[in-house]
Amino acid sequence: RIVTKIPGMAPPPVLPSVLRLAPSMVRIKPAAVSSPATSSHVPGASDQHDTQATVARLLRQLEEGGEAECLRMARDLDGWPRDLDVVEVTPAQIEQAIASLPTQEVKDIQFQHARVKAFAQAQVGSISSFERELYPGVRTGQRVVPVQCAGCYVPGGRFSHVSSAIMSVTTAKVAGVRHVIACSPPFGSSNLIHPATLYALHLAGADKILTLGGVQAVAAMAFGFFTGVEADVLVGPGNQWVAEAKRALFGRVGIDMVAGPTEVAILADHTADPLIVAHDLVSQAEHGATSPCWLITTSRAVGEEVVRLMPTLVADLVDRQPGTAAGVSWRDFGEVVLVDTREEMAALSDRYAAEHLQVHCQDLDWYLENLHNYGSLFLGEETCVPYGDKCTGPNHILPTRRAARYTGGLSADKFLKKLTWQRMDREANKTMGAAAARISRIEGMEGHALSGDARLAKYFPGEQFDLGSASHRVAAIARLRRDFDARRAAKL
Q: Containing H/E element for 199?
């Protein structure tokens, strides 16, 4: 549901809790509809009931109807011909797509892939298996194991989203996922994925590529349609229907996050270039009518100049790309906030927990040290969100709507399970068995305690232990052990 500004409507007031974070806060340009300063701004906070009900119904139909129902939806929603029933992309189609691309496009996608792959490899290197002896005779450890199958959704339709293809599939393969399924809707009026997206998926290492979009694509990966392999985890951006389908399936499968409209926050002091700042706000506003773009500044001059420049830059974008929603986005969700200090700026930034956070300030190291909530951080004028979105290396599939308070973006870690294990010798049971039994009885879990009692009775017959239990109950376990051993010996 897109909420837009009604002419003459006053902007919503700033929440008292936000004013406590930044008492000097003044809105040079308020967000007409909402922002993290005026609302909870969290996933699911807006009215999603209709979307949830529709997606739940579609998922039921898909699970009950299987591949046939998935094809029916593809024909109705993706425009598939009625006589076409093959959604898996063939090697010949991939080769044809690659041959159709200009040489420079191929080189650019390869450049992008190399950066993303290198960053994902560094992430994998930072996550390790280990073994530790935490107590004499008690060996414990962690194994890092990839999931078996990942489903990667890549948006499509009007444009090619090579970046999302590279970011999701490459990261999964670097993490060691054995089977990666990718889905993307057909391009325009064709029955094929955009050639550039198809090449990116192939280069990144997708094992199966399906020409499907929307809820039916998410269901196909989760339920194993057309591949026979059910995804363990689903990742990738998408519209509200894709996001809700992932949310609804969470628990049955893992997901990266529940994504909302993309967003950017820029922190700027008096040294910031207002024209560069305004260009960067427009670069994110073009994503859609509900994509927020926020500026928090300690300089009134910078803030006011950015507000003055924005209509000109939006108009220029409209000339270059008619139909852009940047103007609506800036009007309804754009915000410019003035505060007195960088400490207030950092506190507000952590409240907003933006998907993308740019810093155009002096002393960048201070911000790196003191900012805590963001999807990805861009320090200094020399870098910006589009660089990260396209080719610098860190993943661009990031948390939105303040989810950065508790999670980061898509990484190799999403495809890896950290599995713990332990081994113990019998001597260590003297301490561990007795302690576990006593703690279990503190918690009222007698069955747990008896597992320790039974081992101590087997390994150390005749020895006395403080088990937090009456002596006659301890003796009963010892008798049970002796009787059991005697019966086994008699049979031998």
A: helix 195-204
Three-state secondary-structure class, residue 67? helix
Laid out side by side, the sheet with 138-146 consists of 130-135, 138-146, 416-424
Please identify which residue in the block is written with the tokens 């220029």.
Answer: 316
% helix, strand, coil for the chain, step of 5: 45, 15, 40
Nearest to 197 by CA among 181, 186, 213, 208: 186
Single pTM value for the model: 0.89
Question: Six-digit token pair at 339?
Answer: 């505060």
Q: Where are the beta strands (DSSP E) in 163-301?
A: 179-184, 208-211, 233-235, 254-255, 264-268, 293-297
Q: What is the DSSP letter of 169?
A: I
Contact 102, 255 (CB under 8 A): no
* Alpha-carbon dihedral sign for residues 41, 47, 53, 58: negative
Helix-helix angle 429-442:446-459, to 10 degrees: 160
Rounded Cα–Cα distance for residues 402 and 388 (Å):
19
Instruction: Find the catalytic residue in 356, 360, 381, 427.
Output: 356
313, 37 contact by CB (below 8 A): no
Residues 6 or more apart from 171 whose CB is under 8 A from it?
A: 116, 120, 395, 410, 411, 412, 414, 415
Q: What is the full DSSP assignment across 250-286?
A: BTTBEES----S--EEEEE-TTS-HHHHHHHHHHHHT
486: Cα within 13 Å, side-chain hemisphere: 6
Question: Is 113 known to be catalytic?
Answer: no
Residue 430 one-letter amino acid: K
| Virtual torsion, Cα 104, 110, 116, 120, nearest 10 deg | 180
Q: How far is CA 7 from CA 11, 328, 409, in A?
A: 11, 13, 37
Tally of CA atoms within 13 A in the half-sphere of 406 that contains its CB: 7
How far apart CA 67 and CA 419 sit, in angstroms, is 34
**What interhelical angle do 326-333 and 300-320 show, nearest 10?**
150
Distances (CA, A) of 482 to 17, 127, 454: 66, 47, 11
The rounded average pLDDT for each run of 10 residues, N- to C-terminus, in the chain (492 residues) is 54 94 96 92 65 93 96 85 82 95 96 96 96 96 97 87 95 97 88 93 97 95 97 94 94 92 96 98 93 97 97 96 93 97 98 97 98 97 94 91 93 96 96 96 96 96 92 91 92 82
The H or E element spanning position 222 is helix 214-223
**443 classed as catalytic:** no
Query: Which of 335, 355, 360, 396 does the annotation list as catalytic?
Result: 355
User: Contact, 204 vs 113, CB < 8 A?
Assistant: yes
